[in-house]
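We give the chain.
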Amino acid sequence: MMAVGMLLMFAPAAFAAEGDAAAHASGTFLSDAGAGKISGAIGAGLAIMGGAAGIGRIGGSSVESMARQPEAAGQISTAMIITAAMIEGATLFAVVVGLLAVLG
């Protein structure tokens, strides 16, 4: 996921080359299409960072909980996996939306 995020963050530079001539011709720094692509890439990157932080926090907290109550490790592990999957799904949705903004 981090590799995809990094790829999306640098993709607008490649796409901006096309609109660069139009932006220079109009005297602006950034064209509307380039701004949309950069914002989509930044949004996808932020979504990935938020999802990664959330999953990391869930994992750390669940390991601490399992260490304190080893008899409840199965229940804690199940809840951790379900919650991590939900965060992963939301992150994937945000990345797809960001990718659509970059490519659209």
User: Anything to note?
Assistant: The chain has three helices and no strands. Helices lie at 2-26, 32-68, 73-103.
